[in-house]
Amino acid sequence: MAKYKLWVVAAAAVLLLAGCTSLQGSSNSASSTKTTKKLQTTGKVTDSMYEGVIDNNQYKTSQTRGLTTQQSNTAFDVKSLESGLLKISKQQFPTDKYLYQEGQTIKTAEAQKWLARQSKDNPLGLNPEDNGQKEPDKRNPLYLQQILEQDFLGSDGALDGMSIGLGMNQIDYYTKEQYGATFETKISSAMMAQQGKQIANKVLSRLRQKKGMDETTIAIGLYKQAPKDSLVGGTFFAYGISKNGSTTIDSWHELDQANQVFPLVNNEKAVNQSDVDAFNSFKEQVQTFFPNLSGVTAQAHYEDGVLAGMNITVNTQFYSETEIMSFTQYIATAANKYLPQNIPLDISISSAEGMQAYVGRATGSKGFSTHVFGSY
């Protein structure tokens, strides 16, 4: 009888522990997945990342990512819109409280109609109708270039939050005839902001009419597209939050962001000359020590005039793995000595054969991590 009671107590304890297992209590392995009765997720490596949602053992891809008007985007703009919107999202939807899902509410065909011009055949167009003019200062330009949706779910799988990124043109590229020369209509910052906020409220109103969206918190960010020949992406210049079913954003948060490429070209004015000098010292030191380089360039990101991060690309002609190993170690030493401190840094070392090594420093870290990509 005593053994029977002991068995019952042990079984009850096991059931209690099983019942207390939560979504956050599962393994954080990047390669593992986690399952509850309602959700399956990817797991996550760090607290700064969202867990992604898996549906029927498959990851849902975005309905809107990469969609643009007829003019093409740079790859930098597509990535910068996505990463910048994610940063805004994290302020509203913390990674420890929400799960991430690629945008599913705005369907691909719907987004394509929204990005097009308004017309009799397309009353949903968010860009102004064609007024028939061809001259840059007389025609109606395309203000909206791309749209991106990010979804945020609670642990029960309900859509609790959404972020929308609207890519706005500062230059609208067009042709007067098919396959003809390309012309430009420049759009002032004031007009870009005005049009962006008007379009944002139209998008918000349409989202509120969708099933289950009447109370969802929605963040909308306005993004300035980079010129098409830029070697760096654009930046966000404002965002607004809609809560409790509101159909307009009355209060906007202005953002002061800038991206710049080093070395500077065409007599461009530096956002911060000391950052340029630091990069030039790093570049000179690296090229002196290892002269067999094709080039060293950097993308610098600024927020409120302060350097917030830097991505550096080093193109080499090395083929020996031992050369790459030595070079990678030297890069880390030179970066620690010459480049600005207390910012995240990513340094990619590549050749025509592909990426050869990586040197990086995470936010808040003092040291660099390195990795050389070998072969078997």
Automatic annotation (TrEMBL):
Gene3D superfamilies: sex pheromone staph- cam373 precursor domain. Keywords: Lipoprotein, Signal. Pfam families: CamS. Residues 1-25 form the signal peptide. This is Lipoprotein, pheromone. It comes from Latilactobacillus graminis DSM 20719.
